[in-house]
Design a protein that fits this description.
The protein is an alpha/beta fold. It is 39% helix and 19% strand. The chain contains 8 helices and 11 strands. The longest helix has 17 residues.
Length: 220
């Protein structure tokens, strides 16, 4: 039996990109498989850590004694590979209508991708790039650190508790929680991490603006 719909009243939305708005799993898996093979690591174990984090943070978590300089160099190479590879990059079902419903409403992209990669992936998926963006260049610490969500809320002019986050990964959900932002989980990875509500895709998420500046978001 389907779960009953869950509604939130908020003032702004903070949106992850990969896995939440854009399905880039095919590219992510190709890139991390190559890196894992080069390091003699199990690709499945690497991918279990990689989703939601900046690349160098994933490398540091997997190989804690590896020099930072090597991780940063590999991160830069991987970003170049990811920007050149859009094969299989598509919108998450419901994402076009969801973003269209947010036109004129306060919302920001909060992603572990850098600005060029965010532009490439959103374009490949046929999605508009939000005007307010917190990307890898904007923060000093990767998700699960809350910095990105705190900066996203601040950029929109709202307290974190007055925002609602959308995330697909454990690292992203943890980052939103640590920032004090309620979080809606999207997709198969999210459910195991205890989001306040969970949807398989964005097709079951509706956005209704109120006359007082609030936004009602219904999941389910």
């Amino acid at each position: 039996m389907p779960a009953a719909p869950v509604s939130f009243t908020t003032r702004a939305l903070l949106l992850d990109m990969d896995g939440t708005l854009v399905n880039s799993d095919a590219v992510v898996e190709r890139c991390w498989h190559r890196w894992a093979d080069g390091q003699g690591l199990d690709p499945a174990e690497v991918l279990a850590v990689a989703h939601g984090r900046q690349g160098h943070a994933t490398m540091a978590a997997l190989l804690p004694n590896r020099p930072v300089e090597l991780n940063l160099a590999d991160n830069n190479r991987m970003l170049a590979e990811e920007k050149a590879d859009t094969d299989g990059v598509v919108a998450i079902p419901g994402a076009p209508a969801f973003l269209a419903a947010l036109a004129g409403l306060p919302h920001a992209l909060v992603t572990s991708a850098d600005e060029p990669l965010a532009a490439v992936r959103m374009a490949a998926a046929g999605l508009p790039l939000p005007a307010v963006r917190v990307t890898a260049e904007s923060v000093g610490a990767s998700k699960p650190d809350p910095e990105g969500f705190l900066k996203g809320a601040a950029a929109l002019g709202f307290a974190p508790a007055d925002c609602l986050a959308f995330e697909d990964s454990g690292a992203g959900i943890a980052a939103a929680r640590a920032a004090g932002v309620p979080v809606v989980g999207i997709g198969p990875r999210a459910g195991a991490h205890g989001p306040a509500a969970h949807a398989a895709t964005l097709e079951t998420v509706t956005v209704t603006p109120g006359p007082d500046g609030t936004i009602t978001v219904t999941v389910g």
